[in-house]
Amino acid sequence: MGRRRKIEEVDGFLKLTIKVKHQVSGDEKDFIQTLNHSLSPQDLKFTIEDDLFCAYLAAFDPDSFRDILEDARRKTGITKVYEREGLSDPVSSLLEEILSIGSYGIRYGKRIYIGYADERKVSDRKEKESTRGIHYYTRDHQFSHDRNPIPKGRENTIVCGDSEDVLRSFPDNCIDLIVTSPPYNFGMEYDQTDDGVDWNAYLDKLFRVFTEGIRVLTYGGRFIVNVQPLFSDYIPLHHLISSFFMQQKMIWKGEILWEKNNYNCKYTSWGSWKSPSSPYLKYTWEFIEVFCKGDLKKTGRKEDIDITDEEFKSWVVAKWSIGPERRMKQYDHPAMFPEELVERCMKLFSYKGDIVLDPFSGAGTTATVATRLGRRYIGIDVSEEYCATARERIAKERKSGIQSNLI
Ligand SMILES: C[S@@+](CC[C@H](N)C(=O)[O-])C[C@H]1O[C@@H](n2cnc3c(N)ncnc32)[C@H](O)[C@@H]1O
C-alpha cells in the first residue's frame, strides 16, 4: 500500500495519517461515511484527504469500535472490494496505530488521548515554572558557544593513556557526545587500574576526568554516564555523580533505567533471611544518567538524524530492557556494556557525523558503534591491551560495513 504514518495534534484531536498509493475509490468514501455515521464525532472521526486516510482521535473504546467497524464493513462490502483489488484496508492500519499509542487515562470506559493539559491540577504551569526556575542550578553558567576542532590526528583513534591527562591536551568545546561507563570501584580485575580504592580517592579521580569531559563538550553537547552503584557498600554512586554534574552547572536531562533482567542477583544473598533485621534489596538494573551542557537542545542537520519513528517512540520511554553483554570472555574485558545500549544513546542524543568520546573506552564498544552509525569517535583507556582489542573490533566493524555496502 506504500504507507507513511504520521501523528500530530490538530484542533483538539490527535491526527493519525496514512498515505495510500492507490487511487481512492467511491466505495472507500462510502465506507468512511458509514463508519463515521456510527461514531461520536467529538471522540473519533475518519476523513480522506487526497491520498491520506486520517483518524481524528480524542477518545476511544476498542471493543465498541471493532463492532462498529465490522458493521460498516458489512454494510458497504468494502472488505470484498479490497480483496478484489489486492489492497489492504487503511482503517485497519489506522486502528493498529491507535492501539499502539498510549492513552493518558480512561473515562467512562473510553481511552482518553487528548486534553491532558486541561485536566492537570496545576494552572498557569509556564508562569510557575518560570518563577521556580527550571534547572535553576545551572543559573549563571559560563559555557561558551564557540566550537573548536579536535587536535590533529585524534579523530577516529583509540588513545592509550589516563583520560585526565589525554583530555588536557584537547581544547574546550570540541566533542558532541560522551558515552561512557567508568570503573565502579567494585574490585574488578582490570588490566591496569586498581578497582577497589578508598571511595574518596576514587571519586576525586573520577570527578577530575568528568571535569575534563565537561570542558571539552560543545554547547548543547550531551554527557551520558552508565553507572551501577555498589549497593553492598551503600554508596549511591548514581546520586553522587548526578550531584557532581549539577554542581558543574550541567543540566540533569534525566535517568534511564537499564533493565538487564539478570536474574542471578535475584536469587542469591538475602541479607537477614525472612527477617526485618537487615534484608538486602536486589537490583536487576543499572542507571544511565544523561546531562546537557548549556542547553537541552542540540542543533544538527535534519538529514543527519538516523532514528526511526518506532525507535524514537520506544526509546523515549526511559526504561530500556537490554540483556548484559555476553562477549566479555571473547574480548577479555570484565565489564563491557552492550552495543545496543550505546546505539540507543547515540541515535537518540546525537547526529550522524558528530564526534563521540568515551574516556573509559575498554574494549571499544562506543567507538565500534560510532563506526557503524557514521559518527566520528575518540576512545581513551589506560590499558594497551584493551586499546588493541578496541582497534581490532573497529577494524572488523569497518570491514563488515564496507562489505555490506558492496553487496
Ligand atoms: C567499565 S570499563 C568500560 C568498558 C567499556 N564500556 C566497554 O564496553 O568495553 C572501565 C574502563 O576504564 C578504564 N580506566 C580506568 N581508569 C582510567 C583512566 N584514568 N583513564 C582511562 N581509562 C581508565 C579501565 O581500564 C576499563 O577498561
From TrEMBL:
Keyword set, alphabetical order: DNA-binding, Methyltransferase, Restriction system, S-adenosyl-L-methionine, Transferase
Catalytic activity: a 2'-deoxycytidine in DNA + S-adenosyl-L-methionine = an N(4)-methyl-2'-deoxycytidine in DNA + S-adenosyl-L-homocysteine + H(+)
GO cellular component, one term: cytoplasm
Keyword Protein biosynthesis listed: no
CDD domains per UniProt: AdoMet_MTases (cd02440)
Domain of life per record: Archaea
Pfam family membership, one: N6_N4_Mtase
One Gene Ontology biological process: methylation
InterPro entries: DNA_methylase_N4/N6, MeTrfase_CN4_CS, RM_Methyltransferase, SAM-dependent_MTases_sf
EC number: 2.1.1.113
SUPFAM superfamilies attached to this UniProt entry: S-adenosyl-L-methionine-dependent methyltransferases
GO molecular-function terms, A-Z: DNA binding; N-methyltransferase activity; site-specific DNA-methyltransferase (cytosine-N4-specific) activity
Protein family (similarity comment): Belongs to the N(4)/N(6)-methyltransferase family. N(4) subfamily.
PANTHER family: RNA METHYLASE-RELATED, TRNA (GUANINE(10)-N2)-METHYLTRANSFERASE HOMOLOG
Descriptive protein name: Type II methyltransferase
Species of origin: Methanospirillum lacunae
Lineage of producing organism: Archaea, Methanobacteriati, Methanobacteriota, Stenosarchaea group, Methanomicrobia
